[in-house]
Amino acid sequence: MDVIKRNTSVYCSRSGLSSVPRGTPKTTRFLHLSRNNFQTIGPHTFPPLPVLEYLDLSWNNLYSIQNHTFYNINHLKILYLNNTLLQTIQNGAFADLQNLEVLGLAGTRVSDLSNPDFLTANLKNLRSLSFANSSIKGDEFTGLGNLKTLNMSGNELPTIVNGSFSTLGGQSYQCYKIHGINSFPKDYFKGLVNLKKLDLQHNNLRMMLYSEETSNPFENLTSLKTLNLRHNEFHNMSPAPFKNLSHLESLDLSQNRLSVIPIAVYKQWRNLRKLFLQLNLLQMVTEKGLGSLKNLQDLNLEYNTLNCACNLEWLIKWVSENQTQVVFHNLANYFCAYPRSDRRITILNYDLEAEKCHSQLRYYAAILSSVFILVYMMAIFVMYRNRYYIEYGWYLLRSKAKGRPKAPLGKRKIYHAFISYNGRDSKWVTRRLVPKLEQEEPRLKLCIHERDFT
């Protein structure tokens, strides 16, 4: 048996032990018993170790933990039981660990968490809990009100129970990892309003975008700052999942199959500081999209299928000008995928002059200017040719707006108007026009040569 003692730490790993070594100092604070032959532990396994804070029993053939096993070491803060043969744990196994802060049950055979009574309310100080790679089927965490880190990565959870966290009272969870999920019920994360970090990498969440009911599973995570959606088979993206994530600062969408990101999605990312988009199928990014992320400090666009053409000129210029403000991961891997003749050329080495991007811009600018000048000159010509009609129309509009007042007749003015007309129109003038103007308001005094000049 190779026992190594260093101050208050005892190292007994890989020693073939099935019990705690005799003579373990009572002042021991850290006890390493990993990779031994422990199979079952109970109340008499551990001698009184009143200051023990750390115990590692990982990689043992441990299959049973009896009630009150940790009675003599009830000041434990960290307990690792990872990669053991544990399948069921008695309800009172952890009843004496009121000070426990970290519990590792990763890689065990504990599979059913639909009613995990061993996660007793006595674990009131538990901050970190791991069931990684444990084939978990249920997810009920009632009573763990101070839990900050929950790791369930590497599990297969094809169905998710709605409201699994609703009894946790909105405590601050720093990390929640899961694996094998297709979508979440609408209120699955209800109760985690203070969640800061969510890790959902290596799932198949692209299906959640196909239904309005599942498209916004994170609506209750209003305090979320870090979201990892790496390797989820996303082919497209919509604004819905990010609608309520106004505090999101770090987003990982790498290793998906995204070919385009709509501008509406970028608008939901306005506070992002870190964005990871490597290993996608992005052909272009636009100034209205990526350029709108004014707080961006860290960007990874490695190994995308960028289309090196004149519409990529903005990105090339932006990367060149912002290398001191933004961390661009491995710019040597920002390759042109199209056109094929430019493959393996990085965007910073792409020759915009050879593509005549600038000359094309000048060409289009010249055409637009010429069209504008031509339209302007034609408008001036038409207005000049029709200036009298325009002036008449203007006065007509003004008269309609102000009304037609009756002009007062003075001593030297006997008529309001003289009617000049062709003899062929005499009957129409005397029978229709004159009666209408002289007999209807405002009544006008007219001068008619056939009547008033005789």
UniProtKB/TrEMBL annotation:
Coiled-coil segments: none
Superkingdom in the source lineage: Eukaryota
Compartment(s) where it occurs, according to its Swiss-Prot or TrEMBL record: Membrane
The UniProt record lists the keyword Cell membrane: no
Residue ranges of the TM segments: 363-384
GO biological process, one term: signal transduction
Topological relation to the membrane, as annotated: Single-pass membrane protein
PROSITE patterns for this protein: LRR, TIR
Entry-linked InterPro entries: Leu-rich_rpt, Leu-rich_rpt_typical-subtyp, LRR_5, LRR_dom_sf, TIR_dom, Toll_tir_struct_dom_sf
Keyword annotations: Glycoprotein, Immunity, Inflammatory response, Innate immunity, Leucine-rich repeat, Membrane, Receptor, Repeat, Signal, Transmembrane, Transmembrane helix
Domain TIR: 413-454
GO annotations of cellular component type: plasma membrane
Gene Ontology MF terms: signaling receptor activity
Keyword hit for Nucleotidyltransferase: no
Family: Belongs to the Toll-like receptor family.
UniProt protein name: Toll-like receptor 13
The organism of origin for this protein: Branchiostoma belcheri (Amphioxus)
